[in-house]
Amino acid sequence: MPENPEQVLRLPANGGLDPQLSLAVLAAHAVPGLDEQTGGEHRRPVRIGDRNVVIGLRFTEDAVLLRRVDAALTAEDRPPLSALLRRWFALDLDLEPINARLLRDPTLAPLVAKRPRLRPLESPDPFEAAATTVHGQHVSLAAGRTFAGRLV
């Protein structure tokens, strides 16, 4: 059972993760009106079943911590939320063989050595991924976020 009563799930990351980098990547892709970051926590709505719930995410060296933010979050939401977060942050991905292969490349080796716990980030929602990708074509990341915020 989690120590913090507001903590719903602690999801370990295979091989660890970089907490500051995880927050920075989410901040770089944050859509105005959808994503919010304050005090080391990333908040946003996610789709669970037929409804949206607001979640808060924190990161440690070895896990993603999901906090209850939306009162509509229930115990039945834990399995689908766990699956969503494991996919979104590639928590089951074994970084060791990937890094070992990338470290053989002289161009990539210094980058991998600097960020050995960098994980590929997916999207919590397939439609959102498609919409932000289309919005982001031929414009900067910042402009793409602005366009997506207008859509929200």
Question: Could you walk me through the main structural features you see in this protein, from its secondary elements to its overall organization?
Answer:
The protein is α+β, with helices and mostly antiparallel strands and 152 residues long. It contains six helices and five strands. The chain has helices at 19-28, 78-88, 95-102, 109-114, 126-136, 141-151; strands at 7-12, 36-38, 41-48, 51-59, 63-68. Strands 1-5-4-3-2 form a five-stranded antiparallel beta sheet. A hairpin with a 3-residue loop joins strand 4 (51-59) and strand 5. The chain starts with 6 loop residues before the first strand and ends with a helix. The model has no long low-confidence stretch (mean pLDDT 87).
Give the CA-CA distance, first to last residue.
36 Å
What is the percent of helical residues? 25-40%
The stretches of 5 or more residues where confidence is low (pLDDT under 50) are none
Count of helix runs: 6
Strand content: 15-25%
Average residue pLDDT = 87
Total E-strand runs: 5
Order of helices and strands: EHEEEEHHHHH
Q: What gyration radius follows from the Cα positions, in whole Å?
A: 16 Å
Shape estimate: globular
Instruction: Describe the main β-sheet briefly.
Output: 5 strands, antiparallel
